[in-house]
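Here is one chain, start to finish.
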Amino acid sequence: MRYLVVGGAGFIGAHLCERLLADGHEVIALDDLSAGSPANLSRAEEHPGFRFVRGDARDPGLVSAEVVRCDGVFHLAAVVGVRRVVEQTVDTLLTNGPAAATVLLAAASANKPVLLTSSSEVYGVSTKVPFREDDAPVFGAPSCSRWAYGAGKLLDEALALGLWRERGTPVVVARLFNTVGPRQSGAHGMVLPRFVAQARAGAPLTVYGDGSQTRCFCHVRDVVDALVGLLCSERARGGVFNVGDDVEVSIRALAERVVAQAGSASRIESVPFEQAFPSGFAETSRRVPCLDLIRDAIGWRPRRGLARAIDDLLADPPALQP
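Its structure:
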């Protein structure tokens, strides 16, 4: 098979490219390198079945030309990271939605299977835990710019599901929770690679707020297993699936685990949210996925765990960006 990975130079996209190539497929990675990096693709580029296309996912002509050459499409391209979303809300909205629409419509026109990556941010400020795919989203006021990302992803999902219902486009939506693992960069505010970089440097690990907020962290290779399984499953077509681990850990406990596993002498410091983020930021206390649907559809469950993700990131940090 030949697959198009839109956003293939990103953290998850690059791991997905490597997995598909290892499975014997050909891969085309499309990326404008605004968030991804050529360094992420250094291993994929060693494979004769890989091709990189530098370009904008919002370009209909470019995207359509690549889609028709492929047997399936993974769409991962997006502005990512809470800090970047808060600081660059306009760019987030003008990038993510049009890119998703361009890819989805190209796949619909060519009748190609397409997987859209969404986000746990679509649940907004909901306190109903664990999050289930049919839960109603609960967003804060639009003056809080954090919610722009989740609201935009929800619209992307609506377009994907509309194409499934109205045109029979073989789509599937994967709502990703916190994905972590080797070569992940903290450049856009991701907490685990930031902690790992601080621990490796012997610098204080900065925990925002009191650190009692909890998250569920899933190893990137588990996430890639889920993405491949969902796109290849006819049973998953037209569905929305949470993809993540369901084991909670507080951010304070995460910092402590990184220090211990790194053998670091770093101390842990608390930083108030108002000092760490510009106005327009709001924090959520818990993010826990219900995994019943994906387990029933493709038999998937996370296998590698947080401890392995920390060890793998310590052993394989991101390459220096060019």
